[in-house]
Design brief:
Number of helices: 6
Strand content: over 45%
Shape: elongated
Largest sheet: 5 strands, antiparallel
Distance between the termini: 142 Å
Structural class: mainly beta
Radius of gyration: 37 Å
Mean pLDDT: 88
Number of strands: 44
Length: about 650
Amino acid sequence: MIRSVLKKFLIITFMLICASFAGGKIEGYENYSALETFVEVYSEINISHLTDNYAIEYLNANLTFFPRKYDTQIFAKTKISAEPQAQTEERENSIFYYWGDAEKYSKLNYKVEGNVKTINSFVKIQQKIPFPLQYVPKEILSYTQPTKTVVINDAIKKQAAELAQGEDDMYEVTFKIADWVQKNVEYDLNTMTAKAVKDSVWVFENRQGVCDELTNLYLAMLRSLGIPARFVSGQVYSNVINGFGAHGWAEVFFPGYGWVPVDVTFGQFGWIDPSHITFQVSEDATTPAVDYQWKSRNIEVETGELEVEVSSIKSYGPEEKFIQLKVETLKGSVGFGSFIPLLVTLENPNKFYVPTSVFIVKAPGLLDKSNVKTALLKPLSKKTLFWVIKVPQNLNKELIYTAEIEATAIYGNKARTEIEYAEGFEVYTESWAQEIVDKLQEVSKKNLFSELKFDCSLAKEKYYKKEKANVDCTIKNVGNTNLDKINTCLELDCKEINLTIAEEKKFSWTMNLTNAKSQKLVATAEYQNKIASSYPTLYIVEIPKISVENFTPQSIEYDEDGNMEFTLKSSASAKEVVVNIEGLGAFKVDSLIGEHDFSVPFKAKNFYKQKVLMKLFFKDELGKEYEEENEFNIMVTNLPWYIKLLNWIDSLI
């Protein structure tokens, strides 16, 4: 039987098994300026002859998934090869392989290889792009439309609109949506068990997916707002897999600037590190990596997986530091089990937008689920991010612990601070810390009042609770308009200030410290939804109260030598503590916070008729002196006969 000649058309899509991202910091080449790699893309075709009467008129492969010249990428020293030899043709977006004599062989191989140089992709956008967009060029209108996997339904539209509501800055909108997708969709490789990429509706409803699926949802949300966005696929390095892996990310069109990269999975919103190697740009994740065509008789063709291998050659860097970083806690000394607000302030001194991620890399513990937060800094702006530090419990009560807190930022330097914690320091609750953070976050959401210089400080570094504190403030109008009714507040105590152009005023608040705690105070100056803020530190000196606990022995025999053992416990930091035991001498401790154990040798015969008189001398943090006195009884037993006789004689006198 002679089979009819068939023309077969087969499309193979290169499934993106993304470089893993499971939260936390993906470390790689984010702080490098450029990277050189060697890339190989290859596959094979197996041919089976079903009968002796077979024929192949032609067989070809059109490869579209490989590195190519791009805005921030050079594909050099390219070598195109096939085994057995094939006719090849480099087209605009593909490499075409043609075997005219394929029927002679049972296996065909093809490969493209070469060096790739990628540059850290940072587009310096200096001007605000108004949102919503009023005009989209015709040639990119397709990137605003839904596709097979970039599906736009009412729920996706509603979520995107809620995030964009009130925003007139396109960069802010694209950044907020990327941040929302990363925080609300769990990266989950289990979705790769499906035969096809999940569409954006499935990802939105199930809140899980891999890199291409997260990107599909991001594209759908942007396109629902009329923002052009496209899908990019290729390779990327991740320390999670310790190498390069297939990956997908997005590019967003900014009028006047072109296409700006956004990698939702890696948290790189407005830039990508140079390990991102672009292979393909398309409307969504379903564009085929290679398609095969052949015309044959009595032939079975089986195509292999498309393989990609990437190895690093040379890195360039580090990348320029665009932002300045500062880390501070609202408390410096706290008790075990405390919760402390942490402030990380970012400053952008440049005349262009800087997107970044901030990582808390050292801390005793965090209440927050993630150590990573993202921020978009507008030109010449500041922004503060907040965490809550959790201090351990059940530590050694005799020690004062010092912990380093360190933050790093993409395009920023490292910043560090320290806190100390011990048994006797004040304990701050989770509810208190969260209340403070909520208050500070509310202040930080408002626009920075750059036309106003506002600074507040306390008259003294440290106070007692019985005192009153003066918070002295200076406010100056550095803009070009008069400012009437500036609402200035210290916590909930507010007053109005008027300023003419270039005018400076000084004013104060007086605080009763009876119920106050050591803390960062929040002072604000607000005018027409713009705000300037200052955070003076109030430090309350706690008056130490030292108690003597666990005194032993309760009894001892007359002829024994023993040890008086006791514990000093202080409610606050005490300095130059002296324990004077009458008849035994003085013992000194330079600093006492929490508990300290003592063991003092003594002879029982010296205390058989008298109490143990213990005097404590100590100072607080400001050097004020205190004195306390304690008495203890020790029962001395088994007195010898002559001591009993002397006691009897004494009783007769």
